[in-house]
Amino acid sequence: MVVNGAPRELGGDPQRSLLMALRNELGLTGSKPGCGEGECGACTVLVDGEPLRACRVTVGEVAGSEVTTIEGLGGRHPVQRAFVEMGAMQCGYCTPGMVLTAVALLERDPAPDDHAIDEAMNGNICRCCAYPAIRRAIHRAAEVPLPPPLAAAPPAPEVARRPARPWDLTPAPERDYFAVLGEGLVVVLPPAEPARGFANGGAWCHISPAGTITGFTGKVDVGQDNRTALTQLLAEDSGAALPAVRLIMGDTDVCPFDVGTFGSRSMADIGAYMRSLGAHTRALMITRGAERLGVPPAELDAADGIVRHLPTRQAIGYGDLVQGARRLETVAEIPPPSPASGWVTAGRATSAPESVEAVTGARRYPSDLRRPGMLHGAILRPPALGAQLKNVDLSAASAMPGVTAIQAGALVAVAAPDVPTARRALLAIRAEWRIPPQAAEADLVQHLRTHPTQAAAGGWGGSLHHEAGDVDAAPGMRLSATYTAPYIAHAPLETRAALAEWEGGRLTVWTGTQTPFATRDALADALAVDAADIRVVVPMPGGGFGGKHTAETAIAAARLARAAGRPVRIVWTRAEEFAWAYFRPAAVIDVRSAVSEDGRLTAWSFTTYNAGAAGIHTPYAAASQRIDYVPAESPLPQGSYRALAATVNHFARESHMDEVAHALGIDPLEFRLRNLQDERLAAVFRAAAERAGWAGRGPRAMGIAGGVEKDGRVATCVEVHAADGRIVLDRIVTAYECGAIVNPAGLRSQVEGATIMGLGGALFEAVHFADGHILNGSFAEYRVPRIGDVPPIEVVLVNRPEVPPAGAGETPIVAIAPAIANAIFAATGQRIRSLPLL
Ligand code: FES
After folding, report:
1. Ligand 1: does its nearest atom lie under 6 Å from the Cβ of 491?
2. How far apart are CA 798 and CA 747, in angstroms?
3. Cβ neighbours around 196 below 10 Å, total
4. What 3-state class would DSSP assign to 208?
């Protein structure tokens, strides 16, 4: 065949998949494995100009054809440029498949409308739900003439030498910062006492003689693009030019300790650290400039990485100021960060410099990584969830050439030279299991009500009880209702993956975790190895959404690598991802309220079973309140999810507020505003309503909902109509406020993505199960939002420069489900209290 313009001969079995041949034999990892069933489009390639799923095509079937992968476009195609320009990606894992499908579309139809775009792109899943930007990018590509080739961003700085011990485990005076990035100036911001927000180990940066500033943080970027926003903040306060500032994230050897990337804490915690670090760096540059020029510091300014003497215009670059230096500065007194109202670099729409790598296929995700001599690992799965291993016989698998088989507690796994051999080795293992009785899905509501536990699974705290006033005695009209939500799956487009390598008794694991330091600790525990001898590196994973917190894949890869004496990579199959990950918890929520005739809440009782306490408190005034979270024994494994239980708690609360408003005959928006205590949330409600035309909606069916979470405020207004017994979404407006806006482009992308991801949970996502089996564990059976599901969506960003920036990765997801439920009620008079709504 001809691959990307060059003739290639592929011998061997003609029945093997084209995807595996491209990736493993030709090293073209731009074609991504996503599902193995042709449902997600991540592996799309062009065969004689037509988009085909490389996972469903054999090498033999394309013999003699011309195959184009994303690498073959070479960064020259208008679609690639448009995807970068319009920020049409988050994690970027779907992007190569999206770009190639769009290329084929524009070949057929040079000016497609939205309908044609949706039809062509509907087979490609973007789990980050960047669909609106993808539409915009395709329109843009149709407009522009052939542009110059895309230039890749300068590569991220390399860690030149691994330190003898991870820096967070090394006393500060013993750290050799200069071994890592060479000479220059290192500025260290120790952790605040008491720690700001969640526990973390401060931050530091290195200024090189080339004038590059490299910041280090233990946070990771799983597609939410905190990298760009944090870079903007460091550039802003350090007075550096944005292209001269880079971040190294999530490398446990050289980054400060961080508890994990969750809870929308990147902006709130590390954003503040980057600003302080930057402000101190700028002050240092001015001091050094004053010394060098022999002038008072007060006569100097610093911007774009240059210190200028204002009276004489003499200038000296940051790089020149650190030539030959090996100087370490520790921030003792933190200068105040710059006010957001005067921002120059932050506050501007900025596309991620690394997005070029996503559209060209150059970005390597954990499942793309290879090491010399690498084996492929696979894990033996029990016959049912909760099954316990009684005994196992590895002898037949171990006897297979090149196979290493291990057992460690409940883990049974193999490593082999290729994936098919590893799968065959698993089949050769004889194991006996004990399968406990399982709760049935049909009994789930009753099960959760009747199986309370003391502590919640998933690490989000135990039970909660809050009581004020006397709920039972409060006057007014009473209403009560129960709301339910099912388990739903994160289903990141890249499944869990880890690559482990031992070298000289030290272990390195590359994996897409959201908690690199916790993963290191889990590895140390499991393997009985000093944590100082373990390095965890987090390349950008293909999505997380709260689902990539646990360390089991890393541990399995490390155990296999140790046993085999060679690097081992494990990549979960899609079926494993659906069945053996963990889920957003199912929920049962009882709400009782009392309200006076003039529309004031007098009592509010809210009990959530199982889901969690996030978002459980109400922003509405009610003198008497009883709030309870009752953890329950969960039939399925459950854990954190984007915005945790705030998704279901907002569904219940905002649905109920709507019910009360209708029962009183008061406009639902007016009822909310009358009872709101939070002026920032009220402003966001008004912004969404105004953009949606709420006041003048007449007979159009609209629903509205909103809330406060993680210091962000969201309100979503949805318009629907009923046609032929179906509900059709006509339009979504989401207004969002999270303080000072650092990167409007990234923020808009997060708001759109979260709203659409929430649309899936609202309309159709639900994990079905029976007897310890997941019944819909594939993209064919578990429906996630596709581009054709997305109505026109408008985002209103409310900027508050006087408020420190908060996160945006989670909160915008919480309002869409109740807004749709309320709109359905407006359209049909039918109140649906169980998710999914359709
Ligand atoms: Fe599409 Fe992440 S950007 S899956």
Report:
1. no
2. 11
3. 17
4. coil
